[in-house]
Structures are given as C-alpha cells and as structure tokens.
C-alpha cells in the first residue's frame, strides 16, 4: 500500500491507521469498510490465551474434585471386594492391581494440587501381569475398567509392528485411549492402557541380539519405551494414514498408567533352571530330584525376577519401566467348578437365565459341572473354554426348546457332557 492512501478507521478501537504494509491492517473489507488493526488482533489473541488458561485452571480444579470423590470409592479393599464378585482365586493379583490403581489416583491428585518443592512428582509404577492362558488376566482388567471413572483402553500388543513395517504402530495404543476418553486430551493423559499379549513381542533370541529385522518383537519394545518413559506421542485420527501433511493429535504419556500382560509360555522353565543352579548339590550325598518332586507352575511363577524376564526376551529398558510384577496361578478343578457357578456372570447363571426366558428350569448335576471342569483342564485353556463346552452340550436342546411354550425342566448330567447324550426334559 502507498503512503498517499487515506487513513482507515479500525472498527474496534476507532484508531485511524495509515497502512504501510498488510500487517498494519491485517483484516480489511473495502466494500463494508470493516477493519481490524494489528493492535486489536494482538489484544484479542491475548484475551483468548488468558481465557484458555482460566479454563485449564478450572478444569484442573474440577478434575481434582472428581478425583477426591472417586478415591473414596476405589480404596484397595473396595476394589478387591468388587473383583471378588467376578474373579475366583487370584487374591494376590487382585491386591496388587487394587493398590496400583489407587496409587495412580493418588499420583494424579498430587500432580493437581501439590505445593511441596522437595518432591516434584511421584513416579508411576507400571505393572506387568503374567499367568497361564485362561487364568483371568484379561477378565481382571476388563472388570477393573468397568469399575473406574477414568479412560481405560485395551490394545493387542501382538498386532503392533516397528515403524516402517506393515501393521499397527505403537501409537495406536494411545490413540485407543484417546477415543476411550471421548477425544478429551486432558482425560486421556491420566488414563490407563492395557497391552495384552505382551509376551508375543519378546525378542526371539532371548538374551542374544539378532542382526536381522525384527518388526514384531525387539523393535516394538524399543518403540514402546518412548511411551512408557512419558514422552509426547503424536498420532493421526482413526482411519487416517500417516503422511507429512496429515493433522496429528499430541498426547503426553507422563501420567498414563501402563499395564502389560501375557501368558509368558515357558518362563517357568527359566525360573526352574535358575533355582536349580542356586540350590544344586554336587557329590555322593546330593539329593536326586524325582519327576514328582519338581516344583509346580504355581510355586515357580511367584518367584519370577526381572532377570528371568530378560532371559525370556524382554529388553532391560522395558523391565526397568515395569517395576510391579503381578503373577496369576493356574486354576485347578475346584476353582473351575466355582467359576462355573459363583461369579455374578457365571456361565451356568447365564444359561439358566436364557432358558428362563423360554419358561424352562435348567439344572446341572454336580457331576456334570465337574465333567466340564475336567474337560477344560484337558484342553489346557483354563476358564475361557468353560462356556464353549457348555454351549456344545446345550446346542441341540436350545434348538428344540422353542418349539413349545409349555413350562419344562431340563437336567444336564455327566453323560450329557462326556458322551453328548440328550438331557432329560420333563413337564412341570
């Protein structure tokens, strides 16, 4: 613009501006003479910044108040009592997770209102949870998620790959939490991420490094390390591919609690080997250990150490970020029998309710329930196969029952489970 042009009045502050460059009067409409000068734009920007800062402070006050209210409901003994309604046995695991969750809330509260200069922050205690297939790892975490009032997301670690390879990047775990928090970044940054099947990303070579590409194992652990340490993670919206111009969402993982879990098949052999080395006797008086005297899985798994995890194939840096080790035991026949009938969502209760809707009273003999438990032990799949065994037995009867609306009683016997004989049906 030339200096000979007439002065233009700002529509906000009423100053008369002689524009010498486009930045003196950034907004100007010659048709309506509407104009905003650079001074007003700066003032508006500062006002917006101050308003956003006030909003953030208000959100912190509200978040701190909600945390105080929630902490009264998630004290460790209350969380364990809640889990006892759904999970049989695994008392030690319930205590560890209950304490970890409660401490996570206390850490969030301290971050909101601490004024002690001597302690900047309370470090988070990420958890690694391990146990055999079907012992209740995922069930524990899914019921915890229902109990909590903070975002909780589950991600399958076996689907993750190192950046640059085909598959899901590790950032997808944070993205899942972001959507679980209804796209609220501040809530997301205080949530919980559960990485299931974590043992599947153990490096194949164990302690020894590999010189070949390892897209689904060690590289993934190195990528996860960034999140566990508490850095800022960038990811694209769901369904968008990564490219330089794609808009990204940033989330700081400093206050996100990570729980990783897996079956860690074979780790009991690593533990037994280590214990055998420390307790071995050499000489004529050495005790010969028989097959029946070898320690069982439940005795071994509780003695796991970070060194055992390192031998299994978890890199030391990751182990250092997972200070809490939570172990679950195998389920014996009696435990499986209780799982069938006692929890609030027990399989037997579910099928009884389904049959009630057709005016049918469903009964299971104790021998039949024991047969179901024995079958689950034979399959070596723990509690997750219980419902499948009952479903297989009930298929024909559930197909035929709706043919009539008459009230009836159906009794499932041991023979029905083992030999697939038809259950007894009688009118009532």
Describe the structure.
The protein is of the alpha/beta class and 428 residues long. The chain folds into 3 domains: 1-67, no CATH class; 73-280 and 290-327, Rossmann fold, CATH 3.40.50; 333-427, Helicase, Ruva Protein, domain 3 (Orthogonal Bundle). The protein is 43% helix and 14% strand. The protein is built from 16 helices and 14 strands. It has helices at residues 38-71, 76-84, 91-113, 137-147, 172-180, 185-188, 218-229, 267-279, 297-301, 306-312, 316-320, 333-341, 347-356, 366-379, 386-400, 414-419, and strands spanning 8-9, 16-17, 27-29, 34-36, 127-130, 152-156, 192-196, 232-236, 248-252, 257-262, 324-327, 360-364, 408-412, 424-427. The chain has a 5-stranded parallel β-sheet with strand order 6-7-10-5-11, with helices on both faces. Strand 3 (27-29) and strand 4 (34-36) form a beta hairpin. Helix 12 (333-341) crosses helix 14. It starts with 7 loop residues before the first strand and ends with a strand. Pfam families: AAA_2 (PF07724), ClpB_D2-small (PF10431). Residues 331-425 form the Clp ATPase C-terminal domain. Residues 123-347 form the AAA+ ATPase domain.
């Amino acid at each position: 613009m030339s200096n000979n042009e007439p002065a233009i009045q700002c529509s906000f502050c009423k100053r008369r501006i002689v524009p010498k460059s486009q930045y003196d009067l950034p907004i100007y409409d010659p048709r309506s003479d509407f104009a905003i000068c650079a001074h007003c734009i700066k003032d508006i920007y500062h006002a917006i910044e101050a308003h956003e800062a006030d909003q953030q402070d208000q959100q912190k006050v509200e978040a701190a108040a909600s945390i105080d209210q929630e902490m009264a409901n998630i004290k460790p003994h209350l969380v364990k009592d809640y889990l006892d309604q759904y999970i049989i046995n695994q008392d030690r695991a319930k205590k560890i997770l209950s304490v970890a969750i409660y401490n996570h809330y206390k850490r969030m509260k301290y971050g909101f209102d601490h004024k002690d200069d001597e302690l900047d922050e309370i470090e988070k205690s990420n958890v690694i949870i391990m146990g055999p297939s079907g012992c209740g790892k995922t069930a524990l975490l899914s019921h915890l998620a229902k109990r909590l009032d903070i975002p909780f997301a589950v991600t399958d670690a076996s689907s993750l790959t190192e950046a640059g390879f085909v598959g899901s990047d590790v950032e997808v775990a944070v993205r899942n939490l972001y959507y679980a928090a209804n796209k609220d970044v501040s809530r997301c940054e205080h949530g919980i991420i559960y990485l299931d099947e974590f043992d599947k990303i153990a490096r194949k070579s164990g302690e020894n490094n590999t010189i070949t590409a390892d897209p689904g194992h060690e590289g993934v652990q190195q990528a996860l390390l960034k999140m566990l340490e508490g850095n800022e993670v960038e990811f694209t919206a769901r369904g968008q591919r990564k490219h330089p111009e794609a808009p990204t969402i940033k989330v700081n993982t400093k206050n996100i609690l990570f729980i990783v879990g897996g079956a860690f098949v074979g780790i009991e052999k690593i533990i037994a080997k280590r214990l055998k080395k420390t307790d071995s006797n050499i000489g004529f008086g050495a005790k010969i250990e028989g097959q029946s005297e070898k320690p069982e899985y439940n005795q071994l798994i509780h003695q796991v150490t970070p060194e055992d995890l390192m031998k299994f194939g978890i890199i030391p840096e990751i182990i250092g970020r997972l200070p809490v080790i939570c172990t679950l035991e195998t389920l014996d026949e009696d435990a499986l029998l209780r799982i069938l009938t006692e929890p609030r969502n027990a399989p037997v209760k579910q099928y009884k309710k389904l049959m009630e809707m057709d005016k049918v009273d469903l009964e299971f003999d104790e021998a039949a329930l024991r047969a179901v438990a024995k079958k689950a032990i034979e399959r070596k799949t723990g509690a997750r196969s219980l419902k499948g065994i009952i479903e297989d037995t009930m298929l024909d009867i559930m197909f035929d029952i709706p043919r009539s609306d008459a009230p009836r009683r159906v009794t499932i016997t041991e023979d029905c489970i083992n030999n697939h004989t038809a259950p007894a049906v009688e009118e009532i």
